[in-house]
Design a protein that fits this description.
Helices cover 67% and strands 4% of the residues. The model has no long low-confidence stretch (mean pLDDT 95).
Amino acid sequence: MRERLKSGPAEEVVRYLIRPRLEGEVESLFAHMGRVNRAHVAMLSERGIIDAKSGARILESLVGMDKRGVSSLVLDPNKEDLYFNVEAVVIGELGGDAGGQMHTGRSRNDLYATIHRLKTRAIAAHLTGFALKLRRRLLEKASENVEVVMTGYTHMQPGQPITVGHYYAGVAQALGRDAQRLLDAWRNINLNPLGAGALATTGFPIDRRRTAELMGFDGLIENSIDAVGSRDYISELLFGLSTAAITVSRLAHDLQLWYTFEFGYIDMDDSIAGTSSIMPQKKNPSAIEHLKAKPAHLIGALVSSLTALKATPFTHSREVGGESLALLPAAAEQAEAVLGLAEAVVRSVRFRADVLLAAARRNYCTLTELADMLVRDHNVSFRTAHAVVGALTRTAIDKGLSGSDAITAEMVKAIAREVAGLDLKLSDKELAAVLDPRFNVEQRSVEGGPAPAATRATIGRMMADLEAQESTLAARIAKLEAADRELAKAVNARVAAGA
């Protein structure tokens, strides 16, 4: 194995490179390596590249190793990596003449390129499931709250009345794009690099499409240099996970703000809250605080992946095959934590409808509708109406009024005369109706608006889209399960042929 070299690896190389790689790889890569080895040897035997008896013996050894599990491996750092340790077990059982044929027609370069794609697609499928579960929870909460009126904000200042359902549906729509990015990344992840060899394929008549079939890949990374020299699919997945985490962090920002005593818009179950070691009255939004911060770890992993790839040779190298994906396992754990915690938070948060409605009456967020009413019913240009209502708002605040409910028709008419020389015919009854937050919401029935009917229609369309996403994921998982069955069938057939 190290015949080209005059010495074993330096102590520092073992400590900082080989041992961490071995110990980090063994748990996460063992099963994937077994799958690749079985598919490769079955194909070699089917094609007659190795004889049926040798193929059968190697496959029996690999199956036995899989059954014994990863804990049965005794890792030797002098063998550099997981593959050489696995190969040593096979050669130890079968001898070099038979066991040494397992690696025919391939390199560690295409072996590990394949393993990392298997690992990454498993991560992608797992985390897409979490994203879709969170999206479903958001849409369910949106459906439950389509008539719960609240203030909508821009620049973190009161804007216009919306509903809790409309807000949740907005977050669910953004998360739908995030989930779709994860689903779309599959097209670039689930391709077979095996058979690319070190970088120039092989002179053996291998069948790359057969190994793709046995491992559930959708096709090939055809060019052999690209197959071993690219890991951009890692960065693509990390980007999708980062945007999903950022979407969650924005939801968490709002929830943390709305949970403050000064807002008091929401309450939450004690199960997602924390307390203080010194202040016994505290109920802290601990899970929400973590949701705001955890996306940083995903962004860090994305930047690490991209910069590790930057300016590397366009071929296999340790930067590409090792360093560019070093943070993927930790990033996957953080992404699961973000999506799983977010689902628990959304499930556990309760909006206080009475507080929300009172705030919308108090913070002048209904005055945009007053301007619209002047345009619609009193033949005033919007710019003039904007000037009148702006001056009205300033006057109401200066007078210390309790909110839009305290504004009278006489005040509006006086400001209109002063600002624009208008003689409005406006009654208190007409004004009260237009300043009602619920009326404001009902008026906004444009497609995608906050009116309950419009929001229900939006939620219905998003539910259909979610179900399509869930079906896509389920079909992909089913295909992988079918490939595992086909691989087992092929292995059994080759073992029987060599008996």
